[in-house]
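pinned: reference chain
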Amino acid sequence: MTNTVVTILHEGDAEQYWNLRIEALKEAPDAFLTTYEEAVQRENPVDQTAERLSDENNITFGAFTDEGLVGVTTLQFSDKRKEKHKAFLLAMYVKPQYQNRGIAKQLIFKAIQTARRQGEVEQIHLSVVSTNNAAIHLYESIGFKMYATEPRAIKTDKGYLDEHLMVLSL
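pinned: its structure tokens
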């Protein structure tokens, strides 16, 4: 079994993150609002990624193995005073060959631990496509509870996808 280290990504990780993000958009297009086509049309995407990785309202975690970056997720904090008690888990992706090895769980636990240390965060929210049963099971196993379903949340070339909205109370 390969050792995995989960850490916070910084500007210097931008190129690796960008490459994994592009893979994610190809491999799991229904899991993200951004399309592959939209992403690759950006000007200076690595520079934009570096800027996002240095944004204090977003903390992006990366899972590294001997082969490099294999998984990511972002914890987003609100800059609005009335929403300081909430954080949002976004952009979760683990390379297919590394799925079912506990890497996604490690990423989420690191995000939860970070949110707890932040002090003001009382709950973490996420949304997940209603047909992504593996992700839903993972989130539920950690303690996330579904509180609503947004019908037709995402429109694709193949039709509409519903999203489950989930929350974890800290």
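why pinned: Helices lie at 14-27, 36-40, 45-53, 103-118, 133-142. The mean pLDDT is 94.
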